[in-house]
UniProtKB/TrEMBL annotation:
Start and end residues of each G-protein coupled receptors family 1 profile domain: 50-299
InterPro entries xref list: GPCR_Rhodpsn, GPCR_Rhodpsn_7TM, Olfact_rcpt
CDD domains: 7tmA_OR5D-like
Species the sequence originates in: Dipodomys ordii (Ord's kangaroo rat)
Protein name per its UniProtKB record: Olfactory receptor
Keywords associated with the record: Cell membrane, G-protein coupled receptor, Membrane, Olfaction, Receptor, Sensory transduction, Transducer, Transmembrane, Transmembrane helix
Keyword ATP-binding: no
GO molecular function: G protein-coupled receptor activity; olfactory receptor activity
Assigned GO CC terms: plasma membrane
Pfam families: 7tm_4
Principal location listed in the UniProt entry: membrane
Superkingdom, natural source: Eukaryota
């Protein structure tokens, strides 16, 4: 495998010396360029402040040094990186007429976005397992979800994301590209890249579709199984207040799962046609730009501990400035 991979990279470097792409984005709507720029700039600003703010609040507040918030801080880090890989180029292309991107730049963007997407998928599954242990085995929670186990689960999420992203890049680099090609999207997304290939992309397409389906099935199976046990356990609780607290704790996570996995299932598990490129762009916008903004809002607006920690941090900072 290492020898074949090296050969592929060497051949690809020779074949793609003069290759570049043009990200079509939303250029077919010239009157919307400035409004879209302002909308996406606002979303990106909220994303950066929200996710970095969430990480800061969790790290500075000892009360939030628990497994759930440990996972949440890494989810915020992944969302920040995910948005930062995609949105700056999107904003640039809404302002300039030259929407070109080099072959290396396009492949790099795809690789980094792929790492973030897969990592977040596994991270959400790990968070579901964490909620399962917390609700169904509260007495064993600190033992089962020890700092070592939590670190291993997070490390496994990053490793899984990087491992499969390299596999996708390997298959992508086996394709031939020639000249300057127009990508009918705002991001270097797999289906858009292979659509402009000069060779048969069926193997590369099949590999990512099979992996996406398997990855979705495995992660959603973990999530579904965890929440079935959680639901059964909660319904057996004699206290109405206890049931409400348990459900409210899981509500944020379930919302994050729904808004993340929906567009993924649409993009990679449902075959797309040329007539559906607008839907592909909208779905891509949702899970690459909007979802990273929504996650910190979902977890902060529905979480008393986070809101209290944020108030304390803001109060302490204001006192420091006044003094």
């Amino acid at each position: 495998m290492p020898h074949s991979a090296t050969s592929v990279f060497r051949i690809t470097q020779n074949q793609t010396a003069g290759v570049s792409f043009i990200l079509l984005g939303f250029s077919e709507y010239p009157d919307l360029q400035v409004p879209l720029f302002l909308v996406f700039l606002t979303i990106y600003t909220i994303t950066v402040l929200g996710n970095l703010g969430m990480i800061t609040i969790i790290r500075l507040n000892p009360k939030l040094h628990t497994p759930m918030y440990f996972f949440l801080s890494h989810l915020s880090l992944v969302d920040f990186c995910y948005s930062s890989v995609i949105t700056p180029k999107l904003l640039e292309n809404l302002l300039v007429e030259d929407r070109s991107i080099s072959f290396a730049g396009c492949i790099s963007q795809f690789f980094l976005a792929c790492v973030c997407a897969i990592t977040e998928t596994i991270m959400l599954a790990a968070m579901a397992y964490d909620r399962f242990v917390a609700v169904c085995n509260p007495l064993l929670y600190t033992v089962v979800m020890s700092p070592k186990i939590c670190s291993l689960l997070v490390a496994a999420s990053y490793f899984w994301g990087m491992r499969w992203s390299f596999v996708f890049i390997y298959f992508l680099l086996t394709l031939n590209f020639c000249g300057t090609k127009v990508i009918n999207n705002f991001v270097c997304e797999h289906s858009a890249i292979v659509a402009v290939s000069c060779s048969d992309p069926s193997v590369s397409q099949l590999s990512i579709v099979i992996f996406a389906i398997i990855n979705e099935i495995l992660s959603l199976l973990i999530i579904f199984t965890s929440y079935v046990f959680i639901f059964v356990t909660v319904m057996r609780m004699p206290s109405t207040a206890g049931r409400y607290k348990a459900f409210s704790t899981c509500a944020s996570h379930l919302t994050a799962i729904a808004i993340f996995h929906g567009p993924i299932l649409f993009l990679y598990c449902v075959p797309t046609t040329k007539s559906s490129w607008l839907l592909v762009k909208i779905a891509s916008i949702f899970y690459t730009v909007v979802v990273p903004m929504l996650n910190p809002l979902i977890y902060s607006l529905r979480n008393k501990d986070v809101k209290q920690a944020a108030r304390r941090l803001i109060t302490s900072q204001s006192i420091c400035h006044q003094s």
